[in-house]
């Protein structure tokens, strides 16, 4: 996404079957991946209670290992702040929902919140607005187009004229979508044919083919060979399956001009055309081209001008037929003096006629499908191939370009033997902009082969990262049940987790956390944050910390031991300081009476150079008993995942930007001589996924 | 180690401590089988041949280092100009660990465990189960493919990587097994070219792999 390709696989709480259903197969995560509950399972008529679950059979499906996750909610998902304040009676539902946002806590299980939660790696940060931006609210612009196979950059003017596919030699196999390679085939010249006069007019005997190295398909299966190994797209456009040539639009025009000049010179060709066979089958392309030229001729003839679309008066005449009535009325206003003249011009189109022959585009509908039906029914007996594997699948047909060489009715391809190679779809490099201040958030290099970025403001460089780990102290934590699957939490027993906040910016930040006392959802768990307010030191260099450490140890090692962290802002030099660890030889450590080893309320658990760990305690609800009592059916998929919505507020002091226009202004602002520090704060909701609750109770 | 004359250390010496692969170590175990090697075949020194039945390797075939040929279910026959790559196993047990014995054919002769035709390539990590499995001439058994016991694979087939052939299945000639078990017929007509390319590859391999058939005879 942002050049940092270490994106973890985001399947929060999903079982393996759901992963296969909803991901693209590459393991990428996208919003909405946590699916809403299936309607069939919440059928009230279904009053089957969950079967009594034995110790050995806690889960009916094999569980994927659960990795604790942190999702952050982008503020763009909050409603427009203006609607919150207007007491609009008609939009009562809307304003009530806005109040819910304020009063009630964020519910991670709501269907809507599904789409606004993102892992930290997916979020970017706008430096001007000092706000988080998610992939949904960011505005994208295209930097360049390129072919993913040949990495050739295509200028955007070509996109408009030639389409969004590679026009060089990059093709995908129609059977297995793998890349096709150009191979040289040596065909020994047939000595019998060299002398025959038909040799020159036989179908193209090129010496290059496209072949797939995975499924072993090659273009000889549709009878196409190429003369040169490059610009295959152009050569392919002129070939039909079987090696027959196909006329492009330009060539058709030229042929028509030749025929017209010949017809005028001959004089008797119009009579010959009148006796043309009405049954000649035209393919769609030829029919369309014939019809189009026929109608254009009719229009130009009716208006009495020789050219079609040549001079402006002819264009105006064309308007008279297919322009809406309002347009002609408006035009008649300006030429209103000669109203009689206009009526004459409008009555002129009566000389138009319809097509009468296939050369003009007439194609009689052949509603007799028996030939197509017998071709399908007797496929196995006539060709000896397996019919099922020879039929093209829906995905294969969808990726094919419309085959204009088929006859208009019932001629569409159904078999794999007529699938043509697919040119590669071009890809884009995009730059992202903040929707509010238009500041560029991410901009890749326009050179296709480099994957670097010119500008890349990602949230990971501004917001603290949160990692979660279960806290198990050997002497203190009560032992869990023996058969418990890993990463599960026992219900109705307090479990402790260590949250580590790592600060990426170069200022120290103060973090305030808040969560609702019980988690929203069907199985509410009680949550307590033991230290809701704490500070994280700035992300200084490792060398600075080492130098500080040396200073500290040189002064006195004992004083470092004795200085206990009295409050949440355990001050002192850098280095790890753990509140609550047993320190031998301390004389009357202030708050160590009683629980010497466990985490304490109001104290951080551990502190480092740029990170701080705190402890939260959760007591999950019992799944089985609650499910029996509330009568909402069996436990649905992912309902047993323990998720905590948490409100994070970060405050820090940043250097105020110097006013460049008036350099004297900053000093005039009340004399901020201490570097012009500006207090900044950022607040957002996030969701911590701690683990699955065991279904023991 | 402080001797002046450097002594060549055989590759299978026990003092060989450096291992970089995460797969379990490959070592010779089991009975030494009776063998019939052609004089021009290339058998790497660290190939593994086990089993009570005969193992036959025909003209100009190449057995890479650490390839396994197990004759626990019956005789293993490798045709002419075949290539068996590393960690491939001919005559493997099935997923439950059983070695199948093939049912006798029409004339009542034993089918043997595995029979490879000429010009067959068995790629890295492929498992060809024992039990009368026949791989036709010119077929390429892809990387990591598992061919079930008793399957009969036709000539000039291509089994792409990680595909499976069920036990007892009959694959017609020129089939390509690709994707998730999809089949199609290969109509390129390049069998001769492939055979020639295989002969050239064997030429190169014979120079690169030091052959030691004497170790197994």
From TrEMBL, chain A:
Span list, region Disordered: 1-50, 237-275, 550-594
Cited Pfam families: Dynactin_p62 (PF05502)
Ranges of biased composition (kind: Polar residues): 14-26
Subcellular location field: Cytoplasm, Cytoskeleton, Microtubule organizing center, Centrosome; Cytoplasm, Cytoskeleton, Stress fiber; Cytoplasm, Myofibril
Comp. bias (Low complexity): 554-568
Superkingdom in the source lineage: Eukaryota
Keywords: Acetylation, Coiled coil, Cytoplasm, Cytoskeleton, Isopeptide bond, Phosphoprotein, Ubl conjugation
Membrane spanning stretches: none
Listed Basic and acidic residues bias regions: 241-259
Biased composition (Gly residues): 262-271
InterPro entries: DCTN4 (IPR008603)
PANTHER family: DYNACTIN P62 SUBUNIT (PTHR13034), DYNACTIN SUBUNIT 4 (PTHR13034:SF2)
Record family assignment: Belongs to the dynactin subunit 4 family.
Subunit-level organization: Subunit of dynactin, a multiprotein complex part of a tripartite complex with dynein and a adapter, such as BICDL1, BICD2 or HOOK3. The dynactin complex is built around ACTR1A/ACTB filament and consists of an actin-related filament composed of a shoulder domain, a pointed end and a barbed end. Its length is defined by its flexible shoulder domain. The soulder is composed of 2 DCTN1 subunits, 4 DCTN2 and 2 DCTN3. The 4 DCNT2 (via N-terminus) bind the ACTR1A filament and act as molecular rulers to determine the length. The pointed end is important for binding dynein-dynactin cargo adapters.
Name the record gives this protein: Dynactin subunit 4
Organism: Neurospora intermedia
TrEMBL record, chain B:
Gene3D superfamilies in the record: Hexapeptide repeat proteins (2.160.10.10)
Keywords per UniProt: Cytoplasm, Cytoskeleton
UniProt entry tagged with the keyword Thylakoid: no
Main localisation: cytoplasm
Pfam families: Hexapep
Cellular compartments annotated: Cytoplasm, Cytoskeleton
InterPro entries from the UniProt entry: DCTN6, Hexapep, Trimer_LpxA-like_sf
Family statement drawn from the similarity comment of this UniProt entry: Belongs to the dynactin subunits 5/6 family. Dynactin subunit 6 subfamily.
Function statement: Part of the dynactin complex that activates the molecular motor dynein for ultra-processive transport along microtubules.
PANTHER family: DYNACTIN 6, DYNACTIN SUBUNIT 6
Protein name: Dynactin subunit 6
Protein species of origin: Neurospora intermedia
Taxonomy of the source species: Eukaryota, Fungi, Dikarya, Ascomycota, Pezizomycotina
């Amino acid at each position: 996404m942002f050049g940092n390709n270490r994106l973890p696989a985001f399947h929060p709480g999903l079982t393996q079957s759901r992963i296969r259903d909803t991901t693209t197969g590459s393991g990428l995560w996208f919003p909405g991946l946590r699916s809403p509950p299936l309607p069939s399972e919440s059928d009230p008529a279904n009053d089957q209670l969950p079967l009594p679950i034995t110790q050995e059979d806690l889960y009916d499906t094999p569980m994927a290992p659960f990795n604790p996750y942190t999702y952050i909610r982008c503020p763009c998902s909050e409603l427009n702040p203006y609607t919150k304040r207007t007491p609009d009676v008609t939009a009562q539902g809307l304003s009530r929902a806005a109040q819910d946002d304020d009063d009630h806590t964020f519910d991670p299980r709501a269907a809507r919140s599904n789409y606004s939660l993102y892992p930290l790696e997916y979020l970017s940060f706008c430096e001007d607005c000092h706000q988080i931006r998610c992939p949904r609210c960011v505005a994208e612009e295209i930097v360049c187009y390129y072919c993913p196979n040949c990495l050739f950059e295509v200028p955007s003017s070509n996109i408009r004229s030639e389409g969004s596919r590679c026009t060089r030699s990059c093709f995908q196999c129609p059977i297995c979508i793998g890349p096709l390679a150009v191979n040289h085939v040596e065909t020994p010249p047939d000595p019998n044919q060299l002398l025959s006069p038909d040799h020159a007019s036989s179908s193209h005997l090129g010496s290059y083919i496209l072949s797939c190295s995975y499924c072993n398909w090659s273009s000889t299966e549709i009878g196409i060979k190429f003369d040169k190994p490059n610009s295959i797209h152009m050569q392919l456009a002129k070939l039909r399956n079987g090696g027959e040539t196909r006329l492009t639009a330009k060539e058709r025009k030229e042929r028509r001009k030749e025929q017209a000049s010949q017809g005028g010179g001959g004089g008797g060709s119009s009579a010959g055309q009148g006796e043309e066979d009405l049954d000649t089958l035209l393919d769609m392309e030829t029919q369309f081209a014939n019809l189009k030229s026929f109608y254009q001729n009719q229009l130009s003839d009716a208006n009495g001008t020789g050219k079609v679309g040549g001079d402006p008066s002819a264009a105006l005449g064309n308007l008279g037929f297919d322009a809406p009535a309002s347009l002609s009325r408006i035009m008649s206003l300006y030429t209103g003096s000669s109203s009689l003249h206009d009526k004459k011009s409008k009555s002129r189109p009566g000389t138009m006629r319809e097509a009468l022959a296939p050369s003009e585009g007439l194609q009689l509908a052949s509603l007799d499908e028996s030939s197509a039906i017998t071709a399908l029914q007797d496929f196995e007996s006539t060709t000896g191939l397996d019919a099922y594997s020879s039929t093209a699948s829906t995905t294969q047909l969808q990726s094919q370009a419309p085959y204009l060489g088929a006859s208009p009715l019932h001629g569409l391809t159904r078999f794999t033997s007529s699938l043509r190679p697919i040119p590669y779809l071009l890809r884009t490099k995009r730059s992202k902009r903040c929707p509010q201040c238009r500041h560029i958030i991410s901009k890749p290099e326009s050179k296709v082969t480099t994957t670097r970025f010119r500008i890349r403001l990602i949230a990971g460089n501004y917001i603290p990262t949160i990692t979660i780990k279960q806290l198990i102290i050997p002497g203190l934590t009560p032992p869990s049940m023996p058969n418990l699957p890993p990463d599960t939490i026992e219900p109705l027993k307090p479990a402790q987790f260590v949250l580590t906040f790592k600060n990426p910016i170069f200022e120290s930040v103060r973090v305030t956390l808040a969560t609702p006392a019980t988690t929203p959802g069907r199985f509410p768990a009680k949550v307590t944050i033991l230290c809701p307010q704490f500070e994280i030191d700035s992300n200084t260099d490792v060398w600075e910390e080492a130098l500080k450490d040396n200073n500290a140890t040189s002064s006195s090692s004992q004083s470092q031991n004795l200085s206990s962290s009295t409050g949440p802002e355990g001050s002192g030099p850098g280095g790890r300081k753990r509140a609550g660890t047993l320190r031998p030889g301390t004389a009357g450590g202030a708050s160590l009476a009683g629980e010497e080893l466990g985490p304490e309320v109001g104290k951080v658990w551990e502190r480092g150079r740029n990170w701080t760990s705190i402890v939260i305690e959760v007591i999950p609800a019992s799944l089985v008993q609650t499910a029996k009592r509330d009568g909402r059916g069996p436990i649905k998929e992912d309902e047993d995942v323990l998720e905590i919505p948490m409100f994070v507020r970060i405050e820090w002091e940043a250097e105020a930007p110097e006013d460049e226009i008036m350099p004297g202004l900053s000093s005039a602002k009340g004399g901020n001589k201490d570097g012009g520090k500006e207090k900044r704060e950022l607040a957002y909701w996030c969701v911590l996924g701690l683990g699955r609750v065991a279904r023991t109770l | 180690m402080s001797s002046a004359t450097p002594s060549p250390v055989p590759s299978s010496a026990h003092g060989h401590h450096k291992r970089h692969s995460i797969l379990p170590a490959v070592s010779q175990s089991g009975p030494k089988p009776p063998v019939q090697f052609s004089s021009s075949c290339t058998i790497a020194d660290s190939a593994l041949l086990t089993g009570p039945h005969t193992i036959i390797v025909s003209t100009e075939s190449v057995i890479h280092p650490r390839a396994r040929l197990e004759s626990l279910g019956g005789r293993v026959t490798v045709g002419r100009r075949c290539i068996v790559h590393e960690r491939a196993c001919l005559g493997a047990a099935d997923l439950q660990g059983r070695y199948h014995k093939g049912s006798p054919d029409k004339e009542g002769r034993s089918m043997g465990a595995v029979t490879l035709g000429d010009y067959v390539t068995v790629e890295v990590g492929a498992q060809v189960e024992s039990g009368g499995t026949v791989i036709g001439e010119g077929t390429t058994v892809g990387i990591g493919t598992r061919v079930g016991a008793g399957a009969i694979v036709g000539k000039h087939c291509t089994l792409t990587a990680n595909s499976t052939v069920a036990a007892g299945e009959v694959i017609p000639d020129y089939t390509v097994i690709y994707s998730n078990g999809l089949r199609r017929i290969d109509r390129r007509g390049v069998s001769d070219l492939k055979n020639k390319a295989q002969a050239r590859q064997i030429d190169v391999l014979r120079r690169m792999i030091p052959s030691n058939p004497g170790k197994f005879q």
